[in-house]
Design goal:
The protein is α+β, with helices and mostly antiparallel strands. The chain is 14% helix and 30% strand.
């Protein structure tokens, strides 16, 4: 193969690589996301999890997005001992929008929900809105299951 034919082949390849490298990381990497925090209580107290130390029980919160917020699929979190929780999505947060929140309280592990399905995905009255105009962090405040928000 002559030097001229190698240059003829290599030049378009080099140009393509240069363009690819120049555009990598440019432009938006996707929609803006928000880290969502809050605190979940029932009767003014965090839901008790007697055997959380060995992973036998937990409080699971799930957000199911509506409209554009559904693009990332259901978002899951667990409460800490003090009732606080955080939704980070894949690390940077979740999409702004409207979500239905479900809560399952496994004192001794699944399938025994001590809330008896009252806040399961198909029954929960809790609806939250994650705004797009409040920055990349948003605190829902305290959500008390005895008086849940409805939107």
């Amino acid at each position: 193969m002559s030097l001229i034919s190698v240059r003829t082949f290599a030049r378009p390849f080099a140009i393509a690589l240069t363009l690819l490298a120049a555009t990598a990381g440019c432009g938006p990497s996707g929609p803006a996301t928000v880290v969502v925090t809050g605190k979940l209580l029932k009767g003014g107290q965090p839901l008790a999890v007697p055997r959380a130390d060995i992973g036998l029980g937990w409080v699971q919160i799930q957000l199911d997005g509506q409209g554009d917020a559904s693009k990332l699929g259901p978002q899951l979190s667990r409460t800490k001992e003090d009732g606080t929780f955080e939704f980070q999505g894949d690390g940077g947060g979740i999409l702004p929008g409207t979500y239905k929140m479900s809560v399952l309280h496994y004192e001794q592990g699944p399938p025994n929900d001590s809330l008896k399905g009252a806040f399961a995905a198909d029954k929960s009255p809790i609806q939250i809105t994650v705004p797009a105009d409040k920055g990349n962090k948003f605190d829902l405040g305290t959500i008390d299951l005895d008086n849940p928000p409805k939107g």
